[in-house]
Design brief:
CATH superfamily: q2cbj1_9rhob like domain
Helix content: 10-25%
Radius of gyration: 18 Å
Bound molecules: 2-oxoglutaric acid
Structural class: alpha+beta
Largest sheet: 7 strands, antiparallel
Oligomer: single chain
Number of strands: 10
Shape: globular
Strand content: 15-25%
Number of domains: 1
CATH topology: Jelly Rolls
Length: 258
């Protein structure tokens, strides 16, 4: 039985993304924000920790390593079943990030898509899905993600218009929503981070899911300490602890992640 409504399925197939305004309750958001804040403090205090430290992007790389509440968010009870349905039973985490876009900074990610592996032609495949959780309000001009709806179906050699400023891309749609909202997209969709022209910092958690036979994005391989916490089939598969060519959640009935 499908966990997605007919409307969600058609919208995703047509546009390549879905939005969930105000998905997290105020209490859930507060818990996640506390976890993300502590991760940020640790990351800032130790510059050997992974993640870029640029004026327009502070990247706490692999936040699931920092706090169990961030780890658990990877299996959010509404979004994870949807991503599992879209990707299939061999779902695995590929990478995860906490992005902080400082006020009044230019885009850290111009228009691109995430799936362009040489030698693999996959115009109809869903190789990766990314979920974004907004931990701060993203007002107009607040450095939000933007997508070109339907561009996940563009051919590999499609030439997007060249634009100087990412905001100038024709037909783009902006992910400008209150804190606690979430969105997900098919990773072949063209997307960008827009300039943050406001005085507010944008904070977003990103979870990228692919298939168990894919490698983790380099630098996101789960640590032994994290793997030791994975007591359930779901978490073990997400952390790549199962046979890459035999992994399946099809017979899982216990969806708890602890
Ligand atoms: O920061 C953003 O909203 C864009 C993120 C992005 O480009 C990516 O995850 O590939």
């Amino acid at each position: 039985m499908s966990v997605m409504t007919g409307e969600q399925r058609l919208f995703f197939e047509t546009n390549g993304y879905l939005v969930f305004p105000n998905l997290l309750s105020p209490k859930e958001l507060a818990t996640i924000r506390v976890a993300a804040d502590s991760a940020e403090i640790l990351w800032r205090a130790d510059t050997s920790r992974l993640g870029v430290r640029k004026p327009n992007l502070q990247q706490v790389q692999a936040p699931i390593e920092y706090d169990d509440n961030l780890l658990k968010l990877m299996t959010h009870p509404i979004l994870f079943p949807i991503v599992r349905e879209l990707l299939g039973e061999d779902i695995q985490m590929i990478d995860n990030d906490y992005f902080i876009s400082p006020p009044n900074t230019s885009s850290h990610a111009l228009w691109h898509h995430d799936v362009g592996m040489p030698s693999v032609y996959h115009p109809r495949s869903t190789l990766m899905i990314k979920i974004f959780f907004l931990l701060s309000d993203v007002p107009p001009g607040g450095g939000g993600t933007a997508v070109v709806p339907g561009s996940h179906r563009f051919p590999m050699d499609f030439c997007l218009p060249k634009v100087e400023n990412p905001d100038e891309m024709p037909s783009h749609v902006r992910m400008e929503y209150p804190a606690g909202s979430a969105y997900l997209f098919h990773c072949r969709i063209y997307h960008a981070a827009l300039n943050n022209t406001t005085d507010a910092t944008r904070r977003v958690l990103i979870f990228n899911y692919g298939h168990s036979w894919m490698k983790f994005w380099q630098g996101y391989e789960p640590s032994e300490a994290l793997k030791a916490k994975a007591k359930t089939r779901v978490m073990q598969q997400l952390l790549g602890m199962t046979d890459p060519y035999g992994a399946s959640l099809a017979d899982v009935t216990d969806w708890s992640v602890e």
